[in-house]
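Sanity check record (used in CI):
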Amino acid sequence: MNRIKYSLLLLILPFATSVLAQQKPALSWKEVSKWNSIRSNTYSLSPNGQWLSWAKGPTEGDLQTVIRKISDTSNFSYPIGATASPVVYSKDSKYAAFKVSAKDTEVKAAKKTMKPLYDQLVLVSLPGNQKTTFEKVKNFNFSADNPEWLAIHFTAAENASKDKDAPKGTDLLLYQMNTKKSFNLGNVSEYSFNKAGTVLAYIIDANGQNGNGIFIRDMKTGLITALENDKANYKSINWNENGDAFALLKSNKNDKFKDAVFSVIGIHKIAGELSHKITFSGLSLKNFPTDMGISGNGLPAWSEDQSTLFFGITTQEKKTDSTNKDKSGEKLKDKTKADTTGKSKMDNKALAKADIEKPDMIIWNWQDKRLQSAQQTQETRDKNYSYLSSYRIADQKFSQLADSTLKTVFVGPKNLYAIGYDNSNYELMGNLDGQGYTDIYVIDLKTGSKKRIFEKFYTAGRGLLSMAPNGKWASFSKDGAFYSINLESGQQYNLTKNIKASFVDELDDHNVLKPSTSNFGWSADSKYALIKDNYDLWRISADGKTAISLSENWKSKKQEVQGKSFNYPKEKGIDLSKDQYFTIFNNQNKKSGIGLLEAGKNSIKPLFLDDHIYNGVSKATDGNVFIYMKQDNENSPEVYATNSANLTSAKQVTRNTPDQAKYAWSKGVKLINYLSANGDSLQAVLYLPANYQEGKSYPTITYIYERLTDQMNTYAMPVFPGGGFNRAMYTSNGYAVLMPDIKYKLNDPGMSAVACVVPAVKAAIATGVVDEKRVAIHGHSWGGYQTSFLITQTNIFKAAAAGAPLTNMISMYSLIYWNSGGTNQAIFEASQGRLTPGYWDNWDAFTRNSPIYHIKKVQTPLLLLHNDKDGAVDYTQGIEYYNGLRRLNKPVVMITYRGENHGIAKLPNRKDYAVRMMEYFDYMLKDKPAPDWWAKGINRSDMEKHLEARAFENE
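Expected output for Prolyl oligopeptidase family serine peptidase:
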């Protein structure tokens, strides 16, 4: 008998060993710190398309820049410190340059010692991999279209004065890459190459303003010309697009004014000493506004035909004449000293008035267009605001284009017209209910005359005017249709009236009137507007007489044109004489892809449409090389390259997340179709856990916000998130993750969530993947609100975690959104809140959808996150819910990170909360031991010891 058992054991052991070998370990938060990935904002393609670069490295620690040759496997790696930055290529693609920052250990040490840190610059010659390094670099630039030069601007000396009036100039090195010769320019505060790279404009800002001025250097001859010298400061060099003219600002101290007086300088017809210079300050002109001056915050610019200078103006406050000042402290003291008898009562009274302590207060008036808190938050912006103006050179005509009511003005292409927006009559009400309106003006830039073309134009849920490249046409959305307007004649045309499709966004369920679909802008020749309905993209003639669908009735397939790739840097509008690429998406099955509209053709041809996410289509500016990005739930974003305009035969160039293969990973994703309790057909995505086995059910996290299924095929990068939850971490650790769509009914945001989420959970349970006894829910911000509300209406969840939730719709309605300084009223009545009007006329809806009013029904344990400096959802919302649950003896823990805003920003705090949230869910759904902070809490006196112990454990 024993022999039989032994034989059976020998048979079983190899099978068991094989199974164990296949089981990869789950990803832990410690591994996330080491997780190696490409930083998505660092991709650079060389102009000739032969080189692609990116930065990669661990979540915490030092990074590398990789430069790879696309045509083969040649690649070079360079350490770049703790901060990622993209590579910049010379125009001829022979050189690459990038910054190297301080190492991670140096950055951490510097935070304690306050020691300054400096960047290096590395210049690499391609393909020889010869490297040149420059120390203490502030910024750098190649000489635009001229591949010969690299300008390197160095940081100020460590002991340089930090005073605001101290000189800003430092060394600028001009490095000639072919000869390796260097030319140093001292005391340079600012520099800029023209487009051709043939002229360098730079500003000298030296000690005592000695030699200050604006200079140009001919990069071919090396000849330097001083265009102007003065005891003044200069800034804001701005070349025109062609690179044959530039404008800048100049400031001088003036005894008549409190602040420096600015002038705008225009340089054109550049020819060394013979260059033309125009200087304008406006102070001597009769029609220049009193108490105004050129603004130092605007960016001056030339018109396309170089007939006009554009710039900003702002209030110029004069100094008060001290000889007439009865309030001068010194004069008051002199007067009181002369009267030793005590008879000068008036002077004593004036002195007392000067010395009196003033109250520190704010007056809130019901007529304020903006709340005092909004004015305080936006005070710096208001102080720096400048009103767009122009100066026409030929007839010396000044025109103020923007003013205190018509604040927003955009200069159109060709500088023929500008469009101005004036919401002053509607600003107060717009800040109250969010239903935005504006008056719209067309400004003739030749005459400066303004004509109102729309009064009380509705702006909520739609874009403003889109101008054509010729500057003579514009398109806009109004009342569910799109129109064009001829700015010369004022004639309007309905562009979509003859198209049998809706141009109201069918998925936008906010409480705004007829939110519009997307306006893709104009064709490069200004003949056509390109406008999308809910699915198809239409090419419509400017007068609306002809319309062609470029996507041939994709509505029948539930397929849409989602967006456009911009591959031609000089393109104005959409050039239909060139190949154009679009992202495409199927709303029904969530497949995504890339479509090509070939030059001169009328139909977008899908190149890919499958279970991936495609984006980032880009063409090399000077080469026939195309790249795009591809990702899905199980594969991180990778770059593919090809020489084919059809994107065929593309090969993978990058290798992202190389450590993923070591760990257990999600085994796929299911798309679930279901009916909400309101009878709406909806969808949810269910991500399978690692090591998923058919027929086995798993603990599940339901993650909610609004509509999430369109992101079904996105990759979840393992990171320490600002809200605690990371999908990849949970699926790797054996959880399924459910993400349902939520469709909202007006005045029922909370009840809508219940009607959508609960049926989604039941549909997911029906698949057999989800263990109905081990389902939790989590959301942050709006998702946190819905989480807090759902547990008052259902007991389907065993645990819940709510981040930064609003919990009392009535108190929240009138609280301050501190990040902007406005109230939440507009958010409720025209945005996410979806409640209208105020609670005084809508009491039932506000209470019906507030977690706090149903708090007695809560039976689900809750983990709350609410930070004390939350500028979006007031901290009191979390406190109110926590204290209510605590008073009712409901299981609840609230975690607050001091000084943090709506999301968690500091890495130690992000790490801490991510670990705690998983500890909580592991306890509630996996029967692991309860963490001490949940089971019994941590006394204040023991907190430091508790945090030190956890930090050590999580290293």
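The mean pLDDT is 92. If this sentence no longer matches the regenerated tokens, the check is flagged for review.
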